[in-house]
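Why run this: before we spend reagent on co-expression, it is cheaper to look at a predicted model of the complex and decide which construct boundaries make sense. The entries below are exactly what would go into the expression plan.
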Amino acid sequence: MSSPSRLWPALIVASTFATGILVFGGFGAPLRPVVVLAFLLVCPGLALVRLLRIGEAVTELTLGVALSVALAVVVPVAMLYAGDWSPKQSLALLIAATLAASVPELLRPRTA
Amino acid sequence: MGLMREGALGLRRPVVERAARGREWSFERLAAAWPILVPCGAVALWAVSLGRIDHAAMNDLGLISALPPSIFLALLVLVASFCLSLRRPSGSQIVPALHVLALILMVYGITPLVDDVPRYSVTWRHLGVAEYVARTGDVDPGIDAYFNWPGFFIMTAFLTELAGTSARSFVDWAPVFYNVLYLGPLLIIFRAATTDQRLVWSGVWIFYLANWIGQDYFSPQGLMYFLYLAALAVLVRWFQQPRERPRLARALRAFDPLLERLPRPVRERGAHAQEELRPAQRAGLMAIVIVLLAAIVPSHQLTPFMAFMSIALLVAFNRCSARLLPVLVVVLIAAWMSFMAITYLHGHLEQLTGGVGQLEETAKANVGSRLHGSREHVAVVYVRLLLTAGVWALALLGGLRALWHEGGRVLPYALLAVAPFPLLPLQPYGGEMLMRVYLFALPLSAFFAAWLFLSVRPRTTAIFALVSVALLAALFVARFGNERMDYFTPDEVHAVERLYEVATPGSLLLGGSDNVPWKFQDYEKFDYDVVTEPRPWNLIDVVHPDTRAVLANIQRAMAARKRTDAYLIITRSQKAEVDLRALTAPGFLDRLELAASVSPAFRLVYGNRDAKIFTLAQKRGPG
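The model came back. Tokens follow.
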């Protein structure tokens, strides 16, 4: 059983892989909208916010969602104005950032 | 008696005692669980009552005129339960959170559950802008203002493309979604201001009872408001430590003796201690704030200015250690406006700057021109004004009490409460600036209003419950007062879908008013206009409109389209808007529709119970 500190990174990583498989594998409803929207609106920001070790669940979740929403604006806006509108490329960037932030936390040895 | 009878039946005493203890235990558990059970019961009563809401029975007072009594009863039960639960000594966060979530569902979740299709014509326009981005992978700033601040629409296109779904399937839930999002930053801000959890939750409760503005639909401002609150939450929670004063803050030193003379706190209700952050944490949190601001600037015209005002005031009064942040906001705004929104600025500079200092014009646009419409609608507008003034009055009184008890510690929160007001004389914002100022001031207004209800004495609880009921009643009138024109029926949407099937690109689409669920597809491909506002081609006398003259004007305008088609669409919600807001004479659109129906110059292309589409008879179009 995961300790509480590993539950969130495990969920984030699982959600990231699920999103990647659903989008790049070309799967459709009903699972895809739920999983993909949940990932994009929660996971990238939460993975990054957890790096700060604030340690308050409500605060981390709030800032995580806010940062995810902001990234869902900033990344595609930047790509569109750069003349390279590609939702899948933007998603790949966010997946990479999410995994880079979450996997080390997941793999870190437990302390007593 | 029961126990005695059981004893008389020969049961062994320990069994009887265990049974008695069990019952006692169950009763105690039940009694202890009421703060959980009662809001759940209120939600259940509310849910089963939703089916009895009859849109057809609605008058110009809006949704409140169509609600069954059981919904009011459910809300009253929730209010009573929340106010009583605040008296409990328990420090549990679950009980107030459950009440607040129930309130959000029961107020903001009514319309998504009873409406068949998304409401507000502007929602459909927003869907159209996002559809344009998804279809073309581009933005054209020449189309309109939305394309100069397209961040939200690009995000929507991005999300829906990846999710493989249409935004239309979930936009109606935006008010519930946004208001749940607002809860997080509100809690962080209020908990930074006080450790008294009753004060925190009372402030949150008042926020949701007073959020009548209705900007939380599927809109850029609704979502950017969340990012704005989140940015403020980080600043007041972690960046309040006063440092060596900058020059401007030194100039404001005159306030210090005044603040120091105030009495010390009567009770320890102080803010969270500003914990020391490691440099990496500090940098990370500031990076989050910057990303939030970077998302706000390209997404909405007004929110960046509100953010600037709030942050600049905190910095000016030395209540924010991130002193360069206001400069960064200005740079972001200036960069966006100079490069990305320059097309819009070229055509609207006079409109944007012309309102500066025009107080009379601003007052007229924000208040005077809104006191207009049917008798019930004018009553709704007065309720909105009363609710606004009432919340500000409560905030002022509560703010004075907070200042008396807490001294200068409340200063940053007072600054955030007044920060939006300087924008009022600068821009009428299409007659909406007063509402926007109210919205941006609301979180801290609600927090200070809660200071009036701190005591756990029964009398204070009763007064808080009465105030809550009054706010709730006013909220339903103020927020849902335009409901008769705001909701659409499936028939109206079917008619517009049919319109896009028959109209060739470039066609002129005329509406009885702009209150139509249109522009959700092919946003840039059609010309839109309305027939109830004066135009060079239609000099309608809005007070005494001549139906035959207007129909002749419409006929000429439609005939002038040589290469493309032209259509006139008249719908139920247009008629509701014209009558409710008195855009022209009551019943004018009914008369216009009848005149077009019997005129040999017009042909009915499509009609159902709630909408009719006409085109010119001599032009053969598909239909």
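Chain A touches chain B at residues 23, 28-29, 32-33, 36-37, 40-41, 48-49, 51-54, 58-59, 61-63, 65-67, 69-77, 80-81, 85, 87-88, 90-91 (CB under 8 Å). The radius of gyration of chain A is 14 Å. Bring this page to Monday's planning discussion.
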